[in-house]
Input
Amino acid sequence: MHNGWITYLYQFIIGGIFFAAGTIFVVKVKSANLKLSADRKWVTALVIGYFGLAIVFGVWTLLAIHT
Output
């Protein structure tokens, strides 16, 4: 495996653990009430943004490795 993928996996696995833990914490302490439409939209935007960033960085890493 190329070193670019190791850093990518580290960033998004370890970062994903912290992201998930933070999101779960925010929901558990009721700072974000998922019954409210506005809070659901923000949490959904954060999750889509995380995976969107992972996809963009994955493509970027793929292009960097194969050029």
Q: What stands out?
A: The chain has one domain: 3-65. The mean pLDDT is 93. Residues 23 and 46 are 9 Å apart (CA to CA).
